[in-house]
Automatic annotation (TrEMBL):
Source organism phylogeny: Bacteria, Bacillati, Actinomycetota, Actinomycetes, Kitasatosporales
PANTHER family membership: BLR5614 PROTEIN-RELATED, CONSERVED INTEGRAL MEMBRANE PROTEIN
Protein name: Transglutaminase-like domain-containing protein
Transglutaminase-like domain sequence ranges: 41-140
Record InterPro entries: Papain-like_cys_pep_sf, Transglutaminase-like
SUPFAM superfamilies, per database record: Cysteine proteinases (SSF54001)
Gene3D superfamilies: 3.10.620.30
Length: 203
């Protein structure tokens, strides 16, 4: 699938906003720490991007798995609380990537429950490394039994592969900022239980 930039200006995928607040000291501190470890690699930018992905995937718990009732949506808050659902974790990863000059945006899948019902939007990250010439999607949701997402720029290793026979679909758009439907859902939820009851079914 060819990914399509929502904005033709690549600088839009390096910008800070209210959610992807990569200029916040907390985001900068985490980015600096991850970059120090990555600088020993021969391809430091790739190593940093992989380290940022693995940090958000593994060190920031998916609240639906952990049972944490808190709702986070700003990248700085996600990194401070170390919790969030897929939307929040994707925002945090996009912020960490942008903090080190790696263009990053947000992508979405439309998924359904195991019974083929209950549609829901799932959040991913798209990044573009220097010289790559294309966007690649990664899924920082967090692994669990049956989910094994990996950092791979060649062959996608996402948490879920869409099942077209159930009406699931990959969204090709790389959003420069979280869509309003996503932000509205995150901001309005008083706790995770309310959030999970009101996840958007479409953008």
């Amino acid at each position: 699938m060819e990914l399509i930039q929502q904005s033709p200006d690549l600088d839009a995928y390096l910008a800070a906003d209210e959610a992807i607040d990569h200029e916040h000291p907390r985001v900068r501190e985490v980015a600096t720490r991850l970059a120090l470890d990555a600088d020993t690699d021969t391809d430091a930018v790739y190593a940093y991007a992989r380290a940022a992905f693995e940090f958000v995937r593994d060190a920031v718990a998916h609240s639906a798995d952990s049972g944490d009732p808190r709702v986070t949506w700003r990248a700085s808050d996600v990194l401070a609380a170390r919790t969030g659902i897929c939307y929040a974790k994707s925002i945090a990863l996009a912020a960490l990537l942008r903090a080190r000059g790696v263009p990053a945006g947000l992508c979405y899948q439309r998924l359904v429950g195991g019974d083929g019902a209950t549609p829901v939007i799932h959040g991913l990250v798209a990044l573009r490394l220097p010289g790559a010439g294309r966007w690649a999607r990664v899924d920082p949701r967090g692994n669990k039994p049956g989910v094994d997402a990996r950092f791979s720029l060649e062959e996608e290793r996402l948490a879920w592969v869409v099942r077209e026979e159930f009406g699931e679909a990959d969204g090709p758009v790389v959003h420069a900022a979280p869509p309003e439907a996503i932000l509205r859902t995150l901001r309005s939820a008083r706790d995770r239980s309310e959030l999970m009851r009101n996840l958007p079914a479409s953008l």
